[in-house]
Amino acid sequence: MAAIGESYVIAVARLRGATGERDVLTFGRYFDRFERRSGCWRFSERRFVLDHSMTASCNSAPLPEMDVPGDGRGAFAPHDPIYRFWPAG
């Protein structure tokens, strides 16, 4: 058995260099071929297509018109709001 698929991706990266930090935003697609082997679907081929990419200077402070309350802004663990919704383990 075989199948094909297309997946969309949006990637954000922060690059640090001698002139400072820049944010890179990339839009693209993966074209995949799958084969079923021993009852499991596996990738047999993957290709990436770059649809668009852009860079901008990094602004670590939020824009005033885009600001949200402190409990609504995403952050790295454990300060991200999702941790208030997960049960304590």
Structure description:
- This protein starts with a strand and ends in a 32-residue tail after the last strand.
- The protein has a 3-stranded antiparallel beta sheet, with no helix packed on it.
- The chain has a domain at 1-57.
- It contains no helices and 3 strands.
- Helices cover 0% and strands 58% of the residues.
- The model has no long low-confidence stretch (mean pLDDT 84).
- It has 89 residues and is mainly beta.
Number of H/I helices: 0
pLDDT averaged residue by residue? 84
Give the helix proportion (percent range). Answer: under 10%
Work out the number of β strands: 3
* Biggest pleated sheet: 3 strands, antiparallel
SSE topology:
Elements: E1 2-17, E2 20-37, E3 40-57
Antiparallel strand pairs: 1-2, 2-3
In short:
This protein is mostly beta strands.
Relevant terms:
flat, 3 strands, 89 residues, three-stranded antiparallel beta sheet, mainly beta
